[in-house]
Amino acid sequence: MMVSQLQGSFLTFLVQACKANRVLDIGTFAGYSAACMAEGLRSRGDGAKVVTLEKDELCQRVAKENIEAAGYSDLIEFLLGDASELLELLDNSMPYDLVFIDANKSGYIKYYNTILERNLLSNDGIIVADN
């Protein structure tokens, strides 16, 4: 259920390569992918942030502990709830440069469509989906 070390390195690279400033992580699980993307944001300065969505309270608690231990708390914002519902509530005035979808596989099409319909992706942004 968690991305591999190779996938994590690729996410760090993608964030750096596309010069992302705002990242949306759909599916936090243990926080590894969010930490990898936060590593890519480290040099971006003020305003750089990963917003990560998780439905399971226990997973989110574990992820927060892992993120804090890794030293990325200042770059990651956690939102608890169903991704479909949270996507409808996100502020679209500041779109995301990279969106990583790694959550409920049956929800991928809905997440994708909501991201595009609500203009949550910046003009030069990219969407990456796991599996």
TrEMBL record:
Origin superkingdom: Eukaryota
Stated name of the protein: 3678_t:CDS:1
Organism for this UniProt entry: Acaulospora colombiana
